[in-house]
Records
---
Amino acid sequence: MEGWHGWDAYAPFYDWENSRTVGRRDIPFWRRHVAECGGPVLELGCGTGRVLLPVARTGVQVVGVDRSTAMLGHARRRLRRARGTDSARLVRGDIRSLPFATEGRFSLVMAPYGVLQSLVRDQDLRRTLLSVQGVLRPGGTFTMELVPDVPRWSEYDRRVSHLGRRRGGSARVSLVESVRQDRPRQLTVFEQEFTERRGRRRTTHRFSLAFRTLSMRQMTGRLRRAGFTIERLEGNYVGGAWTAEAETWLVVARGAL
């Protein structure tokens, strides 16, 4: 299973589920960080624009790249409806080989909410880190967020995780989820089953998502081997100290000079 499998199918439900999990808790961090680093900014795995839109409202030039056509379709619709986001641009591309070699370089590359954990093979992670080096300005900032609790999830079968209505819609949605751990490969696989109900009509969508979680030592080691300098580690969205038990892992690194 490749890390990008399942994301096109996930696109119609991504915002619905994330409003019930991370929500907007991380948005102030990214907006402050963008203000600190300046632009232009590149977001890896921008998805439906959950982070990209509020960053664009700061006025900085921001480019979002994603492999999923379906995810980008949702982001484009959101951008058309939004105000104050004229500085944003969306590009379909592979983060392992970023398509910006001839377009200048970015002051900040950001990888929010565990997007790099969708790279399930070490060679994919290495290619991505080297590609990020290639699009950063000398000494530019690369900031990533890791979701540390994923490998600690207990395995379970067909658990109802979320129930509710779509925002502004009539459909009722339920998520039935199963979790599998492949600890030798550091993989966590979520088998998702979303069901939409409109009156008597019922539609079910099934797909799987795989995530690979490295330890902080492993991830920072790979960053250093790719030429980055670790500037700081943070354990939450307000600058708290990092520990292995922190609720989120944030890595701020500097690219080569």
Note: Residues 150-211 form one domain.
---
Amino acid sequence: MGNLDETFLGLSLEEAKSRVVQLGGRAFHAGVIRREVFERGVLDYAAMTSLSKPLRERLAAELPLLSSQEIARSEAPDGTTKLLLRLADGETVETVHMPARPRGGEARRGATLCVSTQVGCPVRCPFCASGRSGLVRNLAAHEILEQYLHGRALGPLRRSVVMGIGEPLANQTQLIAAMRQVNRDLGLGARRVTVSTVGFPDRLRRLVDELGRHPPFQLAISLHSADDDQRARLVPAMAGVPVEDVLAAGDLWFDRTGREVTFEVCLLGGENDSIGHAERLAARLARRRATVNLIPYNPVPGDRFLRPEPDAVESFRATLEAGGVVATVRWSRGLDSDAACGQLRSRIHPV
């Protein structure tokens, strides 16, 4: 028997060729398997009929294709589906498949997939369920990639947002490796993938230095408040980091890549949704090329926070626009199945 933790997608192409040969195949069979997975969406050796049956059986017994398996799913009335995936070590992670909303009376092709980069989260925002237990571990690049394969099995993907469980820049090496493969092998170009981070300035600067002018994704920064003291409470991992330093790191991203940053604000009723909060945010961003994405809070059991009133959300958006800042509102989907932004990992039932 081979290494029980070893999987086909966890190997480089050269490593995969070597293992396939050891199991009685030819080196080119590794390329055949990769094409079956990435081009045809086949996730079971048994369905790869271009391989001999004995080889398929040996591969299934000694070199699993994936390290993760779907163990539960929940579907919301709006069509959003949340998948609970069990990893090789028994830990779990979630990914969310959101079909495109009809636009102009016509159905749009392809869904948006929300993926995770860690088991748990070290940031521990008090309004987000994902970090309640802190960080368990980082995901390997292939564990991030496999979420796309499980999600694509539900339907074609048009876009992806890396804003599930975890802080992506705390797992930067594996994130970049996974996103490059998503671009190359799954055909989701860099402008169709958005990575959301709380914006650690030092990590963002290193990211820009490493990626240069052509990063494999767009950037979103979860800001939540323009006020230093309040942001320290809402994003505990960023306590002591001035908001202006975060914005400066976003400026560097724009200067180096030419791509605008999206700043995300989770609006909490009676907490950070006042006109004054909007005016101070507009003052911070007025001279910057950026968009603000407002996300009304999605309730999490046991939290003290409140979902803002629609009128307050619209007033906040209008105040930003009046201050010269482009702003949009995203009422999250999947609310009824704990699949909305901030709800992941709020209810995980082992199967």
Note: Residues 69 and 234 are 34 Å apart (CA to CA).
---
Amino acid sequence: MIRWGMVLIAALLMAAPAQADDRVRVVASFSILGDFVRNVGADRVEVSTLVGPNGDAHVYTPSPADAKTIADARLVVVNGLGLEGWLPRLVQSSGGKATIVTATKGIKVREADADDDHGHGGGDHAHDHGKTDPHAWQSVPNAKIYVANIRDALIAADPAGAATYRANAEAYLAKLDALDRDVRAAVASIPAPRRKVISTHEAFGYFADAYGIAFIAPQGVSTESEASARDVASIITQIRKDKVPAVFLENISDPRLMQRISAETGAKIGGTLYSDSLTPENGDAPTYIDMVRHNIKTLTGALSS
């Protein structure tokens, strides 16, 4: 009996997909994508994230260790839409044979163009004319497309786990549906004239399009751009004209510009929004769902009264 028990245990261990050597090695370009992969892949995947918590993928500088990480991966999940300009050279230099998965495939892309008022409503100025807005994850319906693309890529890479990936994705998509309903209900509680805010850079255009809060930003769709004195002056004028109630900091940006705009206009600082990155586990937004819930709570708290 003892011998047969040992044989059974050995067989189970050999069949288990969660062994470190058997898991699908996936590299995500930044923390939000990493969270999506973990929700779909669970124990069948080993996830590494290049741009970690509170990191800025717009201006990231890869390290030699990143090339090694990619060389060992089976899948590399990227946002695309111009977010990770540093990534193609890194993938090439790694010498690896990983499949590149563009998580935004199928998403209706928005452009930050001259008619877009910083992409988010109501003004006379714009940045990054003709540039693609890469922040598609800020719309929860778009996040569902990210998850479906990641699910399909994992199934293609690991057909034996197809049922697991489908079940995990279905459960997570149901959570995203609930999240989307909650965000819409929260926005509906904000008086329509007060649905205007100032944020640091154009990270919330997809959120604005999906949920009807106007965002105005002195920086363009990339944090690499710098706000000119003319742009800042124009935004200050617009805040006073439209009685914009609040300005918001971002976790990846220097707060001094927003503090200056707040001081010059009297618009209060409504809190910190998480735009391009999650936080560590002990922060306000360690997961995508936590991030969206934190942001809508912060927005409604500042705009409802």
Note: The first strand starts at residue 24 and ends at 30.
